[in-house]
Amino acid sequence: MSEKLKIKLSIANRVYPLTIEASQEEGLRKAAKNIDAMIKQFEQSYSVRDKQDVLAMCALQFASQVEQKSIDKESVSEHLEEKLNALNNLLQSHLVS
């Protein structure tokens, strides 16, 4: 069985108690730190006072990063598939000759 940890994360000046797998702790703490840093950046850059708006902007930023990585990965996969097919065709043509 996996070891469960009880931790408290602070996000936007609120504390969230969580029970997590030990292997998740580092990632969750880094994520909370990144969210707080982004909140500060949005508050300074856009003079936003409403935490709900700032958190929505953070969520949009992180979600768009995930989606962009997915799009980029798909594009790379398609490019690699094209290259592998071209290489395979080249090899096939030399084997037939």
Automatic annotation (TrEMBL):
A Pfam family annotated for this UniProt entry: ZapA
Name assigned to this protein: Cell division protein ZapA
Q: Does the keyword Cell division apply?
A: yes
Q: GO biological process: what's one of them?
A: cell division
Q: Which UniProt keywords apply?
A: Cell cycle, Cell division
